[in-house]
Amino acid sequence: MTAAYQSEFIDLCVQLGVLKFGRFTLKSGRVSPYFFNAGLFNTGVAINAVGRAYASALGASGMSFDMLFGPAYKGIPLVTVTAAALAQQGRNVPFAYNRKEAKDHGEGGSIVGSPLTGRVLIVDDVITAGTAIRESIDVIQRAGARPAGVLLALDRQEIAAGSRLSAVQEVRETFQIPVVAVLSLADLMAHMAIPGREADLRNLQDYRERYGLQSEA
Q1: What is d(CA 13, CA 36) in angstroms, rounded to the nearest whole number?
Q2: Distance CA 13, CA 9 (A)
Q3: Structural domains of the chain, with CATH
Q4: How far is Cα 99 from Cα 130, in angstroms, rounded to an integer?
Q5: Cα(177)–Cα(68) distance, rounded to whole angstroms?
Q6: 105 labelled catalytic
Q7: Cβ(34)–Cβ(20) under 8 Å?
Q8: Is 103 one of the catalytic residues?
Q9: pLDDT digit string, tens, across residues 165-201
Q10: Which of the following is catalytic: 20, 27, 100, 105?
């Protein structure tokens, strides 16, 4: 059963076209019954709702952290609205993000925002190959801080070709840090278990049987 904030987030994603059901060929070549495009959170109302969902997922997780970090580029608005939503809940948390290219004038450097210190939580949309997360962890460690975990919009719970683990599990296993998502494929399936969505649910079940984790480790 999905939590209230998860159901609200799914409804928002469907309304905005961020989450679509149908037939989509992914970069991997797999044909997926759903597609998630976080770039369509492109209005003030939408991104405000995203921040609330991220903050709710973070609160439900019980993760401990001192500050937030958003990897460029998609992580920049996500880390900003998450910090704002946490502030509305009474928790004032510093945050930072990186530039793709270091700035050689003005304040200089590649980090914008609060200095990276203590336990740093990485905020992003999804983990595909894990490249952005690995780069973020390297940035955090080089600053003398340590990664506290990762917060995502969606965990596809999908095993990569030639692997026994999902992208999220690989990050957990490699770096020994928690990864929390607002939604998972299992959450989508639970939400679809209602009259009128039988076809979508059946397609999700078929996809999970072929490519997904049968249980989350």
Answers
A1: 8
A2: 6
A3: 4-211 (3.40.50.2020)
A4: 18
A5: 15
A6: yes
A7: yes
A8: yes
A9: 898 999 999 999 999 999 999 999 998 888 888 999 9
A10: 105
